[in-house]
Design goal:
By secondary structure, this protein is an alpha+beta fold. Helix content is 64%, strand content 15%.
Length: 165
Amino acid sequence: MPKSTFRTTTASLLPWLGLALILLIADQFTKVLILGYYQLGDATYVTSFFNIVRVHNSGAAFSFLASASGWQRWFFTAIGIAAAIFIVWMLKSHSGQKLFSFALACILGGAVGNVIDRLLYGYVVDFLDFHYAGWHFPAFNIADAAISIGAVCLILDELLRVKRS
């Protein structure tokens, strides 16, 4: 690759990696606060529909495979690392596509945040608890929110792409 092409590709990739890094830092910072101030199961009432609670998720989304014997930690870590590598490659290839790249950057920041948890603790730290009339949405964290926003943006990007063609 010519030197100027490498420089252009790297420069266009940096804002997306920067966004992923900001999301990663926000995720890890909030988790450090939760781990420092809350014991497992502790909760703070915030509003009639929202609590801060410390929950450990050894599975995936919605505690999928949480009761498995421990192999899921390494399985989900490997998936997260593979996804991060693939996403960086996709960002490098498509950094000019703003909505697509925004979506990938959100997913990247969230995936790396949850991989760090799995490597450090063996579980993902969740703490955002939304509820209504006795019903609770599964607790989640900033990384999960970033991944969800990224997924919605990927769908929106594809719908817009189909509409244009």
